[in-house]
Amino acid sequence: QVQLVESGGGLVQAGGSLRLSCAASGRTSRTSVMGWFRQAPGKEREFVAAISWIGAVTSYADFVKGRFTISRDNAKNTVHLQMNSLKPEDTAVYYCAAKEGVYNANYNYWGQGTQVTVSS
Q: What is the distance between the alpha carbons of residues 19 and 10, in angstroms, rounded to a whole number?
């Protein structure tokens, strides 16, 4: 199996920054793409960003483009999400996820999430 552990969440003021990390362990060779999702209270889980292990191909949700940057360290099996210019509406639990396939939309593995709270 693949285990994902998020860290780096916390409380910040609007306009501030946070850097989330996701450490992957287990059979990480099964995964091809790592992603970040978020879920606010009463809202559905939504896609934030993704990156491929090979080639570092990235994709972003429109609402974070220009503010968030996803990156990966293959040697450490770690993915980061640098979040700048945070807004109160960014408040959510952020989840790290991984999927085995490139073309399928479903993610196979999920972390427990880390809380990000942005004060106004």
A: 10
d(CA 10, CA 78): 19
Q: Tens of pLDDT along 21-54?
A: 999 999 998 899 999 999 999 999 999 999 999 9
| SS (HEC) of the chain | CEEEEEECCEEEECCCCEEEEEEEEECHHHCCEEEEEEECCCCCCEEEEEEECCCCCEEECHHHCCCEEEEEEHHHCEEEEEECCCCHHHCEEEEEEEECCCCCCCCCEECCCEEEEEEC
CB atoms within 10 A of CB 105: 7
Confirm if 72 and 4 have CB atoms less than 8 A apart: no
CA 82 centroid distance within chain:
9
CB 20 within 8 A of CB 10: no
pLDDT given at position 65: 86
**pLDDT score of 97 more than 90:** yes
